[in-house]
Amino acid sequence: MAQQQLTTPSTGWWPVLRRAAWPVYLVLLARWTWVNGLPYTEDLVFLWLIGALLAAAVHSGHGWRRALLVLRDWVPVMAAVLTYSLLRGYGAHTPWAPHLRPQLVFDTALGAGQTLTVRLQHALYTPGTAHVYDYAAVTVYMSHFFVVFVLLAVLWRRDHARFRRLLACYLGLTYAAFLTYVLYPAVPPWMAGQQGALPEVTRIVADVLSQSGLPRAASVFEGGSRFANDVAAMPSLHSAYPMMIALFFWPVASRRVRVLLAAYPVAMAFTLVYGGEHFVIDILFGWTYAAVVVLGVNRLLDRRAARRALRSAGEVRREAAAGTS
Asked: What is the CA radius of gyration of the chain?
């Protein structure tokens, strides 16, 4: 009976709608990309991701019930992320000045008299000429805007309990970082270079995107919007999310997948330091936040599941006792 409720009729307009779902979605996405460039901001990624899930729900033949489940689970997620984006912008206007000296002292000591950002840019970056590793850095950096959401979408379709758990980690980490941004606004290396505290630092990802003729993608680095917060640097969420992903999937991952899980945070850390986006200490704090959140969420949900199992077992025992009395 449940299967019949989920399956759509095989006659009428439903078969046409099922066949058209993915082509219509892909045409709309291609048209959008052609006119506006690749969607890279969180709101756009979410909208197109929800659209893909709706297309998959219709194409699968599960009808409106599955589509409503998509909206039920994903619209609140999108609302939470957009709320964070707005709060993050407002958090740029704190009554206290952004901090720089602690990060500068730590990274200068780590780099033996010069920050690793300055050393790496002097050694590897050629202004006006993008190398292969520069394009690789761009790819790694931009993955921040969609990898977590894609993983959430995969889990939503395959393992809803794991979806809720990863979502709890993502939201907990995001809002913990926001609170820190308000209490401790921090200057990133590229801004420190502008202020004269460091030699000139190039925002390499933005520079490479501009050279590549992708101004819309490069505009993600421009300030002045209500979502912008240039001093939201510690902890680095760009580094925290890859570590969260690695820690979350590590216990169930194969050896080959673990290689990728370990490589992603390292590649992102290199990209952020080399690209002038974050100090090393920002990244270390990001990794620490990720570890604390994943451990805390898993422990909390495991305890809740254990209490639920004990409660269910108690109910079964009481029913069994009532049946024999």
From this structure: 23
What the block records as the tokens of 215 is 């101004």
Q: Which residue has the tokens 């090393």?
A: 280
Task: Judge contact between 201 and 192, C-beta under 8 A.
Answer: yes
Q: How do residues 148-203 score in pLDDT, each as one tens digit? A: 988 998 998 899 899 999 999 999 999 999 999 999 999 999 999 999 999 999 99
List pLDDT tens digits, range 121-150: 999 999 888 999 999 999 999 999 889 988
Tokens of 32: 């959008």
The whole-angstrom separation of Cα 65 and Cα 2 is: 11
Cα–Cα distance, 84 to 172 (Å, whole number): 11
CB atoms within 10 A of CB 194: 13
Task: Give the tens place of pLDDT for each residue, 35-84.
Answer: 776 666 666 777 777 787 777 777 666 666 767 777 788 888 888 887 88
In terms of Cβ atoms closer than 10 Å to its own Cβ (0-12, 13-18, 19+), residue 282 is: buried
Q: H helices within the chain, ranges in order?
A: 2-6, 14-36, 42-59, 63-90, 101-110, 116-124, 132-143, 147-158, 160-183, 189-194, 204-211, 215-218, 237-249, 255-274, 280-324
Angle at 63 between CA 61 and CA 64, to 5 degrees: 160
